[in-house]
């Protein structure tokens, strides 16, 4: 019998890790659904397994199964277990599993792990053979058509987008103050959706007159926001005039030709000293960056769902040049996304 040497074992372990890599996000989803973080947080003190089981929203709880789930979550370093007392407590990352604060990631977890959004991964290789997106292959229609016909999933998707927007906007208004304080009196948020981003910008910079611009059915369902105007329309046809055009995670949904068309409409709406403020991913050359793999995963997600892509700085430059802009500047944030300012003249 051949003995597996250490190198073989390590290589096999890498493959096994990838094979069962799907388990971690689904166990994470389970932790969110069981409100484990909220339960431990509200109790303040560490809890035994039986104490934790008695407080969960699902009752009665099979303690052996809960023990095995908690063992996995501890291995993921999301929660701690004191081996002397056998009591559980929150680890630092688990605070992002708490609902109701600006950096909660609960809505994103529930959306990304939903079967509708996981299914396209099973069609990843199909997309190499043609122009059909994996989402369309999985569900028979584009993501935009699917969302318009399935309000529950659309709500889940919008909640996830709002969650992502809160994370990046929190970094944007604190780390990028100079971006908004330099000669901007009016700003239009193109594809602003439910207004999460523009609300934060308006609150942080009350002297800027802000507008949300999106498709009619999106504007119809968006909430009223004090001091923010709502306009419906199609960004491929026109964009309202403003000192600054703001787009958060819009261009990554579209191919290069479509992005150039959108950027041209933006340029037409800007004064000479205006700018487009793009908040989107800039793919890393440095693969050791903490967000490098996450940004590559976002790129796959765009390929699977919308046919869009995340871009390197060189690719952003090509788009900006092709749309007729004179220059650009990139500002790195502590968020997954960066800020790309494009200047028309």
From TrEMBL:
Catalytic residues (positions): 252 (proton acceptor)
Keyword Methyltransferase on entry: yes
Pfam families cross-referenced by the UniProt entry: Dimerisation, Methyltransf_2
GO molecular function terms listed in the Swiss-Prot or TrEMBL record: O-methyltransferase activity; protein dimerization activity
Alphabetic keyword roster: Alkaloid metabolism, Methyltransferase, S-adenosyl-L-methionine, Transferase
Domain of life: Eukaryota
SUPFAM superfamilies documented for this protein: S-adenosyl-L-methionine-dependent methyltransferases, Winged helix' DNA-binding domain
Domain O-methyltransferase C-terminal: 123-326
Organism the protein comes from: Papaver nudicaule
PANTHER family, alphabetized: O-METHYLTRANSFERASE
Official protein name in the record: Uncharacterized protein
Ranges for domain O-methyltransferase dimerisation: 16-99
Presence of the UniProt keyword Methyltransferase in the record: yes
UniProt GO BP: alkaloid metabolic process; methylation
Organism phylogeny: Eukaryota, Viridiplantae, Streptophyta, Embryophyta, Tracheophyta
């Amino acid at each position: 019998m051949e003995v597996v040497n250490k190198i073989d074992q390590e290589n096999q372990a890498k493959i096994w890790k990838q094979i069962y890599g799907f388990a971690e996000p689904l166990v994470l989803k389970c932790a969110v659904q069981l409100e484990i973080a909220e339960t431990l947080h509200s109790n303040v003190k560490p809890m035994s397994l039986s104490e934790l089981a008695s407080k969960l929203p699902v009752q009665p709880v099979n303690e052996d199964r809960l023990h095995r789930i908690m063992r996995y979550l501890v291995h993921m370093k999301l929660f701690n277990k004191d081996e002397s007392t056998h009591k559980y407590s929150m680890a630092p990352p688990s605070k992002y599993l708490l609902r109701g604060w600006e950096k909660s990631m609960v809505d994103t977890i529930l959306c990304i792990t939903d079967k509708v959004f996981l299914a396209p991964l099973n069609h990843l290789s199909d997309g190499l053979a043609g122009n059909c997106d994996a989402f369309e292959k999985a569900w028979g229609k584009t993501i935009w058509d699917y969302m318009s016909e399935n309000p529950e999933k659309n709500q889940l998707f919008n909640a996830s987008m709002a969650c992502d927007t809160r994370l990046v906007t929190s970094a944007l208004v604190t780390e990028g103050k100079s971006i908004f304080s330099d000669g901007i009196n009016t700003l239009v948020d193109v594809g602003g959706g439910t207004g999460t981003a523009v609300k934060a910008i308006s609150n942080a910079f009350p002297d800027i007159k802000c507008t949300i611009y999106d498709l009619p059915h999106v504007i119809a369902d968006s909430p009223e926001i004090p001091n923010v105007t709502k306009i419906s329309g199609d960004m491929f046809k026109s964009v309202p005039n403003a000192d600054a055009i703001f787009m958060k995670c819009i261009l990554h949904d579209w191919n290069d030709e479509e992005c150039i068309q959108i950027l041209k409409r933006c340029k037409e709406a800007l004064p000479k000293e205006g700018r487009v403020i793009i908040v989107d991913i800039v793919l890393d050359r440095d693969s050791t960056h903490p967000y490098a793999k996450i940004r590559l995963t976002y790129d796959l997600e765009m390929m699977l769902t919308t046919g869009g892509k995340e871009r390197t700085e060189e690719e952003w430059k090509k788009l900006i040049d092709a749309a007729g802009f004179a220059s650009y500047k990139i500002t790195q944030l502590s968020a997954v996304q960066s800020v790309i300012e494009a200047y028309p003249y």
